[in-house]
Backbone:
């Protein structure tokens, strides 16, 4: 029962309570990461913490004094979800599709009828896929499967006499063109998720690929909803992903990957900035090596055996390190 004498805390008290709770979350995240690094024996090998954009994870990286970057797959999820929400025609279709799939998922009679019609129409016996709110790829999979099974699904809904409104032929056409737009993001998310090696160098080229693909698709789509989706995606990519080309860890990874180098960048200005940053870091490392007695004493003898020049002369003879 409610206590009639209870007094609601003041604004200052509530603020303090929230701050304490948030502080505890940051500390817990920090300790969890430290524990994992110790268990896996990688205390001194982690150079960057890749997480979502949650404030507690950003604060955790700051407290651990580690570089932090937002996960591209998570960023793609947010971009596509937001783009769909801002495309009214597609959002309405998504809501209708969810209800249709939910009906076939919950009704044994509907599932059996769909299976019967699939066999009669020569369609694969594939089940419909329901989307998951936290994964935009599931929205893509739901619409893709529904489009592939549109004939048996439509026939089943008519024979079952449900109160649900089936998708019209115009809506299916919209779905088809929107799938042609979203497929690039699905491929990018899949590639990032199944990558078995470090994929940091792919981030910037993937963003460039997505921007180029959607820009090209804009001139090919004929449906107004699909065109609006393209425009929303391009705008959100510019708003939420342009910072990746200015992140030191990402730009250097792309620049050092022999597959991409500077051609992986959307902006050549950012590419040249990355080149200058890499040049400066390499120059600093070489200067530090020259000033180390054990290293500087070995470099001249090694160089003299091959070229007859001293270590310092050999390094200074090139312009790369001192641009």
Residues:
């Amino acid at each position: 029962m409610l206590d009639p004498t209870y007094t609601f805390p003041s604004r200052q008290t509530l603020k303090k309570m929230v701050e304490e709770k948030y502080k505890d979350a940051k500390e817990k995240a920090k300790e969890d990461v430290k524990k994992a690094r110790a268990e896996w024996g990688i205390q001194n090998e982690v150079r960057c913490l890749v997480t979502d954009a949650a404030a507690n994870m950003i604060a955790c990286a700051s407290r651990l004094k580690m570089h932090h970057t937002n996960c591209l797959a998570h960023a793609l999820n947010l971009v596509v979800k937001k783009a769909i929400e801002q495309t009214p025609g597609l959002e309405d279709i998504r809501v209708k599709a969810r209800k249709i799939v939910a009906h076939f998922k919950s009704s044994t009679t509907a599932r059996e009828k769909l299976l019967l019609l699939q066999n009669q129409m020569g369609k694969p016996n594939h089940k419909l896929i329901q989307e998951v709110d936290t994964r935009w790829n599931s929205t893509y999979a739901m619409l893709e499967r529904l489009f592939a099974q549109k004939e048996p699904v439509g026939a089943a809904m008519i024979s079952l006499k449900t109160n649900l409104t089936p998708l019209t032929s115009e809506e299916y056409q919209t779905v088809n063109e929107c799938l042609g737009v979203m497929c690039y993001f699905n491929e990018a998310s899949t590639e990032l998720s199944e990558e078995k090696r470090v994929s940091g160098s792919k981030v910037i080229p993937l963003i460039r690929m997505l921007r180029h693909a959607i820009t090209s698709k804009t001139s090919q789509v004929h449906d107004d909803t699909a065109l609006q989706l393209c425009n929303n995606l391009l705008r959100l990519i510019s708003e939420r992903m342009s910072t990746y080309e200015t992140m030191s860890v990402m730009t250097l990874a792309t620049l050092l990957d022999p597959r991409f180098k500077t051609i992986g960048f959307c902006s050549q200005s950012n590419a040249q900035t990355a080149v200058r940053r890499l040049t400066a870091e390499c120059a600093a490392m070489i200067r530090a090596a020259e000033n180390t007695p054990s290293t500087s004493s070995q470099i001249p003898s090694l160089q003299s055996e091959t070229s007859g020049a001293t270590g310092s002369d050999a390094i200074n003879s090139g312009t790369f390190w001192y641009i």
User: Anything to note?
Assistant: Strands lie at 48-51, 67-70.
